[in-house]
Design goal:
Largest sheet: 2 strands, antiparallel
CATH class: Mainly Alpha
Number of domains: 1
Strand content: under 5%
Distance between the termini: 55 Å
Strand order of the largest sheet: 1-2
CATH architecture: Orthogonal Bundle
Number of helices: 11
Length: 300
């Protein structure tokens, strides 16, 4: 039973990280109907920013909580700036082009950012400091769930709740929902659609950076290619839950994380990705819109 609970906690931790990244995919798709394939690289850049900032701050012997808070703020801000730039360069000039053009542009931006970090850093894995302190009250449960796992779950839940409150109860959130529902009508009622789209990219990028910092601190190393793997998994989770649905992205991420954890624990780590993508195929066969997605009806 203890082993089962350990796998359960591991799956929830994975799912929480996937959710923070998948929210960026699903929010952008909900607003403009396109996939931001550079989102995984934004996650990776946020993680490298966290490594650089935390390394610099540690020189001044600041308390660990101060280093953690400043690093989170810096990495989220820097990733948000990159997300804003990607939207301005890869999407906004092609707003009225065919759907294929911005897709190719985003893939090109993804390749550019990945190679930019490769040249600026190195292809080797870099050690990442443990920024999450060990909680004394977790000592009796350390065999099942560690302090970093708990921190990931709590912070992820808080960020998802905060995002939900923003989308539901703020003027910006209402503008985002209006833009997602009907962009032309949103323009007619005075909503600055370009601004709302930029804000969506900024929020999604900041969430991905926070997820990157948490999982890097948990694992202890990063590499320039982590954005590709995490991006593919998070995109899979978003599709699994229903692309365009925020609750669907969270549910799909948790299902994917639990599937990977139990497949690794009870079968083999070699089949981790096989089970994950097999689950996606089955869901799309029997429910093409995803777990919480709704089939859209297009007028001809």
């Amino acid at each position: 039973m203890e082993y089962f609970i350990e796998l359960l906690c591991s799956g929830l931790t994975r799912g929480a990280i996937y959710a923070l990244i998948a929210l960026g995919y699903t929010m952008v798709y909900g607003i403009i109907g396109l996939i931001n394939f550079a989102h995984g690289e934004i996650y990776m850049i946020g993680t490298f920013t966290a490594l650089i900032v935390s390394s610099v701050l540690s020189i001044y012997n600041l308390p660990l909580p101060a280093i953690l808070i400043l690093t989170v703020l810096a990495s989220a801000t820097w990733a948000a700036a990159y997300g804003f730039t990607v939207e301005r360069l890869a999407y906004r000039p092609l707003r009225n082009a065919s759907r294929l053009a911005p897709l190719i542009s985003a893939i090109g931006m993804s390749i550019f950012l990945q190679n930019f970090v490769l040249l600026a850093q190195t292809s080797d894995f870099q050690p990442f400091p443990s920024l999450i302190p060990e909680f004394s009250f977790m000592e009796p449960y350390v065999a099942v769930i560690g302090s970093s796992d708990l921190a990931i779950l709590v912070v992820s839940a808080f960020m998802m709740l905060l995002l939900t409150l923003i989308v539901k109860y703020t003027r910006t959130g209402m503008a985002m929902r209006a833009t997602a529902q009907d962009r032309k009508m949103a323009l007619l009622v005075g909503i600055d659609v370009d601004r709302i789209i930029s804000i969506t990219f900024i929020i999604g990028s900041a969430l991905a950076a926070i997820g990157g910092l948490l999982i890097a601190s948990h694992i202890g190393q990063i590499n320039y290619s982590i954005g590709f793997i995490a991006g593919i998994k998070a995109f899979t989770a978003a599709v699994l839950g229903g692309i365009g649905s925020i609750p669907g992205a969270v549910l799909g991420s948790l299902v994917l994380g639990l599937t990977e954890a139990f497949a690794t624990g009870y079968v083999s780590s070699d089949y981790e990705d096989v089970f994950a993508f097999a689950l996606l195929v089955l869901i799309l066969i029997f429910r093409p819109a995803g777990l919480l997605g709704k089939a859209t009806i297009e007028k001809v």
